Amino acid sequence: MRLLIIGSLGGQIGAATRIAVSRGAKVSQVPDVEAALDHLRAGHGAELVMVDVGLDIGRLVRSLEQERIHVSVVACGVGADAQAAVRAIKAGAREYIPLPPDPELIAAVLEAVASEDHALIFRDPAMERVVSLAEQIAPADATVLITGESGTGKEVMARFLHRKSRRADQRFVSVNCAAIPENLLESELFGHEKGAFTGAVARRVGKFEEADGGTLLLDEISEMDPRLQAKLLRVIQEREVDRVGGTRPVKVDIRLIATSNRNLEDEVRRGNFREDLYFRLNVVNLRLPSLRERPSDVAALADHFVQRYAAANALPDRPLSPDARNLLLTYDWPGNVRELENTMHRAVLLARGTEIGAEAIMLADGTSLATAAARRQDFQPPRAPAAPAGVPAHNPYANPYGGPPAAYGVPPAAYGQPAGFAPAAPAAPVAADDEDATRALVGRTVAEVERDLIINTIQHCLGNRTHAATILGISIRTLRNKLKLYAEEGVAVPPPAGGDFERSGAYDR
């Protein structure tokens, strides 16, 4: 844990430093906001900033956001000054700590920031196998590619690898390639010199240099522009970076981890991802199973999130009732661990009594989990009939919708079906609700329907762009461009969840 103290803290720097160091933190101190920004731009980094409440906290927070420097800000002031605390929180500080510093309060803040990395919770054999492999390869410096659906906890696994590696006492630096516009990602990764482009007001060390000696995570690397992939390939091969506007390369020593929720082999075939970069990244592949593939983990994760959010909201630690626990197992969690996490957070807030009952478990759109589970169980996509003996189970010419070929005017014998194979029954008449829905679309353009679908999906995902893009089957870059166009047209676009494409906990990846 790295702590940066800004200002004099009312003369309490020494006391705060001693407490933080005793709790295992590495402490640096600078006199003002400008010096703090220079410190962070130079790549020294920090997980937590404690700033004197008398300084311009608003400017500090705005500068951190504009320069995409991710660090928690805590304001400190002498005495329990309620007005100062309110001003600090409104300016963007996460917490307010009264001085002289209380050892337990400082320890709690440090622990809260450190706990954002999340523990790796698992019980299911499917996940045990992945974790066992991760432990085996963690001590090596080999590049690791972590794949899996959105929400399965790829960043959690990346941090697990770092903690188990020989670089555990060095920095872990994460870059979300999907969250940063492509025209800024090069500067974010490789750094820039002052004046290299409009807005480069000072020299900035990139994430590769910031992670020197430690681990660099390239999150959702499949969203990276192909032109930047070529430069990344050179960095991986040569282990040196060229800052934007720089004149000489800078050597770096890092362990590289990349994640993707897409099939990179398919992306290579489509020409969206460089084949040589894929092979460089895929030295070891860890595929995280979806939550429906690891059902034994549902209850363990639910209990973990219940305890965590009860503590975070100063609420009593209420266990899940037996009915609620059984209900969790009836749903297949398409949003994986992230969806379960958000659902448990809501349940903690909505629960009444001494237990969290089934009635408190609601999905993001307000639907009860019991109703949603019943709907998903009732909807079963049609399946193709079992192939007769001697016929391959997978027929590349079979009707993709599951009906027999004869229903499409093709002789059964042409597909290996036995003589007399009965065609599918005629389709049932369209339901009245479907007719109403179809009638509502008549007269509208495809662009209008697409816009409403995108906006509604983002609302369903509580503003989480990454999750929405996955559901829609488009890339983050495409979604970002669509939303920018809608905003220019005056359409109300739902705000992102906690920041520009910010994840909801580490399970967003």
From TrEMBL:
InterPro entries: AAA+_ATPase (IPR003593), AAA_lid_NorR (IPR058031), CheY-like_superfamily (IPR011006), Homeodomain-like_sf (IPR009057), HTH_Fis (IPR002197), P-loop_NTPase (IPR027417), Sig_transdc_resp-reg_receiver (IPR001789), Sigma_54_int (IPR002078). PROSITE patterns: RESPONSE_REGULATORY, SIGMA54_INTERACT_1, SIGMA54_INTERACT_2, SIGMA54_INTERACT_3, SIGMA54_INTERACT_4. This is Response regulator containing CheY-like receiver, AAA-type ATPase, and DNA-binding domains. PANTHER family: TRANSCRIPTIONAL REGULATORY PROTEIN (PTHR32071), TRANSCRIPTIONAL REGULATORY PROTEIN FLGR (PTHR32071:SF21). Keywords: Activator, ATP-binding, DNA-binding, Nucleotide-binding, Phosphoprotein, Transcription, Transcription regulation, Two-component regulatory system. CDD domains: AAA. The modification 4-aspartylphosphate is found at residue 52. GO terms for biological process: phosphorelay signal transduction system; regulation of DNA-templated transcription. Pfam families: AAA_lid_14, HTH_8, Sigma54_activat. Residues 120-349 form the Sigma-54 factor interaction domain.
